[in-house]
Amino acid sequence: MRPPSIPVAPVSAVVHRHRDDAELLSDLRSILLRAPQVNLHRLRRHDERLAASLDGITVGGELGRRACVAALQTPSRGSVFAASVCAIEGQDAALFETLLAAAEAAPAVRAGLVSAMGWVPGPCLRGVGRALLDSPNAFRRDMGLAACAMHQVDPGAVLDAAVADFAAPVRAVVVAGILGRVDLLQVCLARLAHASPDEQFEAACATLALGDREASVSHLFRIAKARHPNQAAALALLLKVLSPEQGDSVLESLAQDGEQARLLVRAVGAAGDPYYLPWLVRQMNDPALARLAGESLTLIVGLDLGGAGMESLPPAEFEPGPNDDPEDDNVAMDEDEGLPWPDLEKVAAWLHLNGHRFPARTRCFMGEPLSVPHCVRVLRHGHQRQRIAAAQYLCLLQPGTKLFPTSARARRQQRWLDEMGA
Fold first, then answer.
1. How far is Cα 212 from Cα 61, in angstroms, rounded to an integer?
2. Helical segments of 74-184, H only
3. How far apart are CA 2 and CA 137, in angstroms?
């Protein structure tokens, strides 16, 4: 006869290690979501590691809760994420109230709370989400709307009222764009006209997704021409809807500024016009632009440089990011980490043989003309930056389409793609 099993009390050091790992993996996930080398399969593997650490906190029971609360003494994005998942899944109303107050007071850690609401299963948010949406507090309503958007749930009349409230933040307009609420386009356009400078970019993105091609384009033009924090994002979105001739004008204007070379290379990839392929190959002569030019070429023709054997070694003089020299003031990270170094001769030879497949003055994305089925395939098989572009294209091709959440938990994304027939 086997002796009865004896429950083993969770060891404090182990629970604290799970908490620390969850914080670290959460922060790393926020980087992977826009990393050039990360596909959905790799994201799922990372998510499984993060889920295991969060499960370790849950198994710790009260000890896990106390570990999360202790980390909030110096709140960070990762500590707020871990504690929020613990509070929501454990239906810990008191801890969730503490986290809401912390996120409202410190916008820098707000992303942790929002990310946690996107991470947890939808059923865990039913009571929480309803309470947030019904709250008289504008910040809490915004959090409720953000949760709905991440789970692709339309809050209905609550969203209608929030979009029409000109005194409220622009979050409701953003959510309307994400959820494809074309019936709210005119109200969203009115909100765009009265938006503050800090809110105009997000509002313009939303109205563009809902089908507007006038006011939103005008606002994006203005942002794309200025040294604005959202300049690159505005350019990438704008060039997806402009004709090749209109795109030429934007790119030529950008080329006049010698300090915007990287932005220009990135913008050419977003424009998708094969006319610029020879120019992109020439940029591969410059080590500062080579990898970025390779990524832009891939966005147009779909060529996987590493998989096709067209990757080379870094130049001998290349130094990837900060070094160990305490006397060196250069602490900048390598912006193109994860991108392959293109082999210039091989890429040029490939383009010579295959360039005829990509006629100039047509918009190409990942090797094919734009189409809904092709964009869905990129969502399934592409890397994160490519997947983000594919999700945007689906909305632009069919206004009223919900913006596919490429930052959602990977297994949830796979389920949604299965439902789309991808």
1. 50
2. 77-89, 93-105, 110-119, 126-133, 138-150, 157-164, 171-178
3. 57
Domain presence at residue 328 = no
Our measurement of the distance from residue 300's CA atom to the centroid of its chain's CA atoms, rounded to an integer in Å, reads 20
Q: Indicate the residue among 329, 360, 391 that finishes a domain.
A: 360
Instruction: Check: CB of residue 35 under 8 Å from CB of residue 69.
Output: no
Asked whether residue 374 is assigned to any structural domain, the reply reads no
Whether residue 6 lies inside any domain: the answer is no
Q: Is 117 helix (H, G, I), strand (E, B) or coil?
A: helix
| One domain, residues 287 and 351 | yes
Q: State residue 341 phi and psi, 5-degree precision.
A: -80, 120
Are 221 and 266 part of one and the same domain? Answer: no
Asked whether 191 and 166 are in contact (CB, 8 A), the reply is yes
Same domain, 302 and 229: no
Q: Is the dihedral of CA 153, 114, 222, 168 positive or negative?
A: positive
DSSP class of residue 358? Answer: S
Task: Using CA atoms of 372, 376, 382, 385 in order, give the dihedral in degrees to the nearest 10.
Answer: 70
Render pLDDT for 289-342 as a digit per residue (tens, 0 to 9): 999 999 999 999 999 999 999 999 999 888 776 555 555 555 567 899 999 999
Beta-carbon contacts of residue 108 (< 8 Å; ≥ 6 apart): 77
pTM comes to 0.93
* 353 Cβ contact partners less than 8 Å away, ≥ 6 residues apart: none
Q: Total domain count for the chain? A: 2
Q: Which of 238, 272, 294 is the last residue of a domain?
A: 238
Range of the domain at 190: 153-238
> In this structure, are 217 and 272 located in the same domain?
no
**Burial class for 264, CB neighbours closer than 10 Å (0-12, 13-18, 19+):** buried
CA torsion angle 73 79 85 87 (round to 10): 0
Q: How many residues does the chain have?
A: 422
Whole-angstrom CA distances from 254 to 278, 307, 326, 360, 362 are 18, 32, 37, 20, 21
Same domain, 168 and 230: yes
Tell me the two tokens of residue 43. Answer: 């994201």
Quick one: 167 and 222 in the same domain?
A: yes
CB 299 within 8 A of CB 271: no
- Report the pLDDT value the prediction gives residue 321, as an integer from 0 to 100: 62
Q: pLDDT tens digit string along 377-394?
A: 999 999 999 999 999 999
